[in-house]
Sequence to fold (97 residues):
Amino acid sequence: MSDYFLDASALVKRYMTEAGSKWVSQLTDPAATNTILIAEITMAEVAAALAAKHRAAFGITQQQRDRALSRFLQDCNELFLLLPVDRKVIARAVRLT
Fold:
């Protein structure tokens, strides 16, 4: 069991298939018993990234976007440890990376 601080670009890989998705899925799998820390602002950043994927040429459908966002928000409530953003959190994130 380890602590991991993930940013939006990493978290999107849990909900959309792209390079690195398998690793992020394994890391964030509850069976791995890792603590996944994210900054609260990451919620908006992931939502924005999913919206951009929807708006992109040949992007995801609105239904895919909504489903991915819903799963992400549920994980924020049930799996991830959300941290308010302040200097202390930023310093911890730097150490974890």
Remarks:
- Residues 35 and 88 are 18 Å apart (CA to CA).
- The chain is about 60% helix and 10% strand.
